[in-house]
Amino acid sequence: MSAAVLLVVLVLAAGDEAPSTTTSPPATEGQRWSVVGGRTLGAGGNAVEASLGWPGLSVGYRRGVLGPLDVGARLTFDYALEGLPTQVAPVGKVQGLLRLRLLDAGAVSLGLTFEPGALFTVDRFGNGVPAVVLPLGLKLGYAVSSALSLGASFDAPLWVQLGAGGGLNVPLLPGLGVEYFLRSELVAFFRARMGPTLRPSGGVELALDAQLGVAYRL
User: Fold this and answer.
1) Would you say residue 155 has pLDDT above 90?
2) Is 28-217 a domain of CATH 1.10.3720.10?
3) Would you call the peptide bond into 130 cis, given omega within 30 degrees of 0 as the criterion?
């Protein structure tokens, strides 16, 4: 009798310790998509994003067309030209978005971004100033937990001012970011970057970009 009871107890204990058959990734690998890191949405995934801060506000959409590749578009309204505190003026910008995942290994991800487009602003005399934007970026992400991820980035958001007095501007902006997943499809994030901008005249100005936002996976 006692042997039978012992056998039942052992079977129940083994059942409690049996490994789960769920396919969810370990918590230390974080979520399967990211704003501040290098992860993409995956083929068929869709997400919308909105952010506000310095130098303005933006809304965007991206779609996973391949496992490692997202494409999309962003519309931005700024009150300073490319984050330059000395160039306060209304700015409108439209861009395409490309994000390529280079690495996704456990908690670590690495991605490359390219966001070509155009902007239009006015100078202090009210004259229209168009420009072509060609931002390149590298994003490194690290999942601290299933909800929290950290990011580091290095961006070169190149822009070419057209017309008289124009030329190539070369910002070199290291940055940091953090994101917190309120749900698997909803994330709040903060990102900031700062560094020098090499101006066509040979001068150097400080550029700053700091944004607080949310993104939702559809």
Assistant:
1) yes
2) no
3) no
